[in-house]
Structures are given as C-alpha cells and as structure tokens.
Specification:
Blueprint lengths: L22 H26 L18 E5 L14 E5 H18 L3
Antiparallel strand pairs: 1-2
Length: about 110
C-alpha cells in the first residue's frame, strides 16, 4: 500500500547515557543540580517564618510543604538574599494571588 505522497516522520533515536552509576549517585547528582533553585525557599522560610503572609495561617514541620514562596514582582529569577522580593503564602492564597489578574482581565473584557 502506498502512502499517497505523505512522508512518514520518525523521531530520531536518542542515545542513552552511561548508566554505570548507582541509583544513589544519580539521586545525589539531581539533588545537587536542583539545590540552587530551591535554596531561596528555605531562606524565605527562615526569614519570614512558617506563616502565610496573606491569611495568617501558621505551619509546622508536618505541613510546611503547603507553604510556598511568592515573588512580589512576579520574577522568579529575582531572589535577593535579604528576602525583600518574597512573601510566604499558603498554596491556597498563592493560587488566589495568581488568579486575581486572570479574573480581572476576564471581567474587564466583558464591556
């Protein structure tokens, strides 16, 4: 059966990297790579404490994963060491903060 002039495109095969390292070595490498990205979160938690800046909910070590860092200027690359661009928000308040602009844009377009 002919394909009527259509070309069949196949993805190029990627070569696998050397897997001679142990899984523990791989995990250590991945943690080392991601450490600088997540270090500002721990710094913000140290500076601002385990409390949501918007609703005031307090967190402890068991539920601290529900506390996120919000960048006030909207730039996740702006991480000053003094924490002036950060505020700790619970996941609910953080979601609300980022959806406010969407709702405002939606309501203003109805005119």
């Amino acid at each position: 059966m002919r394909n009527k002039g259509y070309r069949i495109h196949r993805k190029p095969r990627t070569q696998r990297s050397d897997s001679s390292g142990s899984p523990d070595d791989l995990v250590r490498k991945l943690k080392k790579i991601s450490a600088p990205i997540s270090s500002y979160r721990e710094r913000s938690l140290e500076i601002h404490g385990l409390i949501c800046a918007k609703c005031g909910r307090e967190f402890d070590d068991k539920d601290r994963h529900l506390l996120t860092v919000h960048h006030k200027d909207g730039n996740p690359g702006n991480n000053p060491p003094d924490g002036s661009n950060w505020e700790n928000l619970c996941v609910y308040c953080h979601d609300d903060e980022h959806s406010r602009g969407l709702l405002g844009d939606y309501l203003s377009d109805e005119e």
